[in-house]
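Weekly structure sync, notes
Attendees: PL (lead), two postdocs, one rotation student
Agenda item 3: pending single-chain targets
PL asked that the sequence for the first pending target be pasted directly into the notes so everyone works from the same version. It is reproduced below exactly as submitted, 374 residues in total.
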Amino acid sequence: MAIYATPPKSQALERRLTEIDEQRRYLAQHLGESTQPWTGALRRLAAAEAAVGSTSIEGYGASLEDTVEILAGRPAAKTSDETQRIIAAYGQAMDRVSVLADDPHFEWTSQTILELHFLVCHPQPSAAPGRLRDRSIVVTRGVGREPYRPPTFSSVPALVNELATWLRSGDSSRHPVVRAAMAHLNLVSIHPFRDGNGRVARIIQSLVLAKEGLLRPELVSIEPYLSRHTREYYSILEYVQGSEYDPSRNASPWIDFCIEAHVFEATERRRWLELAYARHDFCEQLARDEGYPERLVTALDQALLGLPVTNAEHRRESAIASPTAVQDLQRLRRDGWLDQEGGGRSIRYLASKKLQDGWSTWFESTSTRPPLDG
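Predicted structure, written out during the meeting:
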C-alpha cells in the first residue's frame, strides 16, 4: 500500500502558483523582517484566525476576541474550558511549528508527526495523544452520505513512515503549496490517529509552507479559508477519497481547491497590510494632534485592529515601566479613545466608539489613495 501521488503539472496550475508567489513575496517584503510597530499585532491576529479556523472545523467554537486571549495565556469567560484547552494546545503546536520551520537541521520523521499530534491532542486523553490508532475505524460523513474507511490499523505505521520519507525528500522540485496540500491529503486520508487527524493535517500543511522561509506559519495558513468553506472542504475531500483508502485516485481537485484557498488568503493578507499602513497613519496623526508620545500610536493601532491592549503588552511593546504604562492607558481612556474592561490584573482596553468613528471618517476621506507599491 502506498500514499497518494502528486498530480502532474499543468499550465493553468503554474499560472495560479505564480500568482501566489507574487502575493507572498509582497507580504514577505512588508511583514517578513519588518520593523513596523504594528506587525506583531497583525501576526497575533493571524495566529488567532488560524486557531479559530482549525478548531471550529471540528466543533470547538470560540470568538476571535476570546481566541486572542487564550493564545496570550489569559482566560476567556465566554468560551468553555474544554474549548480553551483545545485552542491553547493548537497554539502550542503552532509555536512548535515556528521553531521547526527556523531549524536548519530539522528533518521530517514519523516521530515529528506523532509529536505534533501529542501537542494538539494532549487535552484529550481519549485521542491517545502521540500514539497511532490501534484499531480499524470508519469515518462518518453525515446523514445519507457514505462513510469513509481509512486503511486498517496494521497498515498505518508503514504509511506514516512513507509519508515522513516523502516529506523529507519526495517531489522536492514541486511548488511548496502543492507539496503542502499533498501532505494534508495524505495525512487525513491515512487517518492515523483516533482523533485530531484534521488538526494535525492542517498543521503539517502549515509547516511544509513555513519551511519555505518566506513567511511565518500563521501568515501562510489557509485555515481561515477552510473554516469559512467547511462544507466545500469536506466535499472535496470526500470526492477525492471515495469510500475507502485508495491512493490511485486523482488528487487534482484537492490541489485546485487548496490553491484557490491560498490565492484568497494571500489577497486577504495584502488587504490587511494596506489597511495597516493607513491605520498607522491615522494613529500617528491622532497622536500628533493630541500631543501624545509616539509610544501611544501602537496602543491605539492595536485597539483599532480589534485586539485588547493590556498593561503588560503596552509595557513590553514600548519598553517602559509599569506605572508609565498604566498612566498611558488611563490617559487614553480619560480622553475617550479607549474603553476599559475588567479590574485588577484582568484590566484590558478596547477601541472606543469615538476612536472607531474617527478612524472610519478618516479612512473614507483618504480611501482614494493608491495602493502600496509591490
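Discussion points:
- The mean pLDDT is 91.
- Residues 252-290 form the longest helix (39 residues).
Action: rotation student to compare against the earlier draft before next sync.
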